[in-house]
Amino acid sequence: MSVTICQSMGFVVSALGIGGIIASTCMDQWSTQDLYNNPVTAVFNYQGLWRTCVRESSGFTECRGYFTILGLPAMFQAVRALMIVGIVLGILGLFVCIFAMKCIRIGTMEDSAKANMTLTSGIMFIIAGLCAITGVSVFANMLVTNFWMSTTNMYQGMQNVQNRYTFGSALFVGWVAGGLAFVGGIMMCLACKGMIPEESRYKAVSYNASGRNISYRTGPYKAASGYEPEMKTRKGPAYEEAPRSEDAGRSYPSKYDYV
Fold first, then answer.
1. pTM, entire model
2. How confident is the prediction along the chain (259 residues), in pLDDT tens digits per residue?
3. How many Cα atoms are found within 13 Å in the side-chain-facing hemisphere of 203?
């Protein structure tokens, strides 16, 4: 019962995490204009992975997509790739996890097969969460670098300084979603350990000797001299010891007894 609960909770948490990663990737508020020095403005800018938007004070919002790929920074494209890889792995992991649920019976699928599928989906969720967290963190590092560079130029009195951008809401959604996917993957891996049948965990192998059992008894070591004959005992029908006669122990007189 606990394995089923752990697997179900892992599936729900992972599904929430994958949904959050998809939502974070589609959101436009990855970076928002910093209003620290200019709280009252007629135009508010914010940017996402796919387009940049401008919102006026009248409430009108206009968005324009990035119509170039080569013109974008390499780190920006890397963030895109990481988020897409996380989404693809997460969706595949959800499909695998659905068929691996212990509460769902599909044909004659064994528990060992479901355990392997559960482990596979858990690894996919973990990688998807790490991809999302890495992508969001790289984008946040880019924002921090550009922010301090703009701040330095502004304090040096340079003119025509561009707007400073700070963290948007999509970054926080991506961090939380990546963490949920990572935790859900760990729960799936833990559930896999409990789904393995007991007989497949420990397989005892018995070894039978081909011949009869021979016991060896250790005794004290005796140094053999070179003058003692080697006695070999042979057993078998051809080497049976002849029966001793009654006269075997009788003593006969020698020739010296008659002198």
1. 0.69
2. 588 888 889 999 999 999 999 999 999 889 888 777 665 667 788 888 998 888 887 778 888 888 878 888 888 899 999 999 999 999 999 999 888 887 777 767 777 888 888 899 999 999 999 999 999 999 999 888 887 766 665 555 554 556 778 888 999 999 999 999 999 999 998 888 777 766 544 444 444 545 454 444 555 555 555 544 444 444 445 444 455 555 555 555 555 544 4
3. 3
